[in-house]
Amino acid sequence: MTNVTQNSSENSQIALDKKDLTKCWRAWMMYNLSSMSFERLESFGFCLGMMPALKKLYPNKEKRQEAMKRHASFYNTEPQLGAIISGMAVGLEEKKANGEPVDGETINTLKVGLMGPVAGIGDSMIPGMLIPILLSIGMALAAGGNILGPLFYIISFNAIVILGSYALFMKGYKMGAGSVEVLVSHKSTKIREALSLLGVFVMGGVAASYVNLNTGLEYVTSDGVNIHVQAMIDGIFPKLLPLLVVLGTWYAMAKKNLSPVKAMLSLVALSALGVAVGLF
Amino acid sequence: MFFEAVLIGILCYLGALSTPWLLGLTGGWYTLTRPLVSGMLVGLVLGDLQTGIMVGVAVQAVYIAMVTPGGAMPADLNFVAFPAVALGVMSGQGVEVAVAIAATIGIAGTIIFNFMMVLNSYWNHRADLAIEDGDDKGVYMNTAIYPQVTNFLMRFIPTFIAVYFGNQYIEGFMASLPDLVINTMTVLGGILPAVGIAILLKQIIKESTMLIYFLVGFVGIVFLKLNMVGLVMVGALLALLHYNYKPDPQPAPAASAQVMDDDEDEF
Question: Is B74 helix (H, G, I), strand (E, B) or coil?
């Protein structure tokens, strides 16, 4: 780091300032999926995220073109956590443009090598945990149509992701290839484990609050006593039927590999059948 | 209703997966397109905030754990969040029926999503050519602007039609359905969240013993009558205990590294 700054001040080399970095971060966050297709996914999003830096680093058109080509190759990761890779690539391009021994192939290999692990961690952390947990709190606050619920979600989620992705981008820029160690270290694995435990716990609450199923079944015993099955269940284990449905769906999906759409269709069949025979 | 349909159509576009204008998927897909948020917005536009939020919460429960970007979509959440939630609010039926409507539209909407993914290959190709020509502006236009024009049309038009015409017909249509169908939809709307929850559990639960945390969370609401905020506090305590007291497995890194090596050899 200090080397870079010294070099650039001595030989009047090109250094990126905070404004350029912020521009790159914003461009990546905005355009990461804007031209997504099955074959290229985030390729050009990554390229646009590099553009503000490339324009400054490579005034020479041919060199810039070469760098753009490099950053338009196939790319796909979890965009918000992936800001760390974009930051890293910007940092490496800056070194390369200032004559340090970094070649284009190295930058590309690092990018492609990291996008998979970061996507795995990112998908399990953000849509897999952070969002469901914030949503369950928001949904509880929204009970009865209270506007506090959606507002809570909007503010908390955006604050966490905007500040977090910006910090990750800067971390990637400063620390280069080593920065991803932060994401895969033993400590962060433990944090992820603890969070996933919280996620499962909260899902129990979501299941209890938002899955509903009652049986209308009733029968008359030989003594003439009218028994409502639902009332009986409520006396022993309220919400037993929803619990069974959730566990059954989980079992079919996790152990029997039922796809989500097929799981939905099975539930359609279950409800139609149940209604037809008067079970529900 | 013309004005309302236009507004909901624009909101639908702003929340679509590839729309960049609200800081990409952070402010769009992961914020506007969460039914909890879209329910509030649709409710505001249609002048019934409370019903909007209630429908939003019910629909949100089904899609609480949808991990989609980049992968195959089991449902197009964007069409669930806007036209479907709007139809659910306008249908005048219960929240459960709104959930069943939304799930149906969600599955149908994946066709349009896949169409966009294929069409964007054309814009990608043009962006490639622009790089060859050294045309910076061309790269920008073919990545940020043109694909968004086609994306806008694919999001705005179906939403506008669904809301504008749906408003006239949905109530009559729902009233004309036989009781059996409405009852089925009501039951279905009640149990569909099981799918969203099961998707998340499938991802997180590595060993079946972890299911005990799910059961304790369930019991916390049903028997201990905690509300969700209280439950999250208790869960946070459990998570902290796990973090603090889980012993560090000393030989594990070497062992796991070896396993990884073995894997590489096999493939």
Answer: coil
